[in-house]
Sequence to fold (138 residues):
Amino acid sequence: MDRIRANQGFTLFEVLVSAAILSASCLVLVQALTASLHTQSRVQDLYAAGLALEDALWTVDHSLGEFTPDQAHPPADLQNTEWDFASGVLADAILQKYLTQNTLTLRWTSMATAARGHQEILALSAYIQPKDSPGSAN
Fold:
């Protein structure tokens, strides 16, 4: 009796359980791949925005602290870009120096998240010591 049973193959139940396990595994892999592609797209956007902010801050530093959004060059794949610029003077009592803090903020909608209306924000600050501050070397 055992010899006859061994040659019959798998039962329908065993095949269905195997198919369910295989389907669940494939679904998990597809979800992981989709999440990975979304993350990669977001990282590329953040990198491009970071380069644009760095370039804009360099422009601010070389234009004596003035900034207009026309001076900035946002990456082409970032939609609905908005620039905010803030500048302030910070006093360091211990070092007896004044520092100018220039902060640029870039808001945008990426192509990947445009359908959901999600807006990304990245800010970058630079601190410079004005040449005419009390602690600077003249």
Remarks:
- The mean pLDDT is 82.
- Strands lie at 78-92, 97-110, 120-128.
- The longest helix spans residues 12-62.
- The helical segments are 2-6, 12-62.
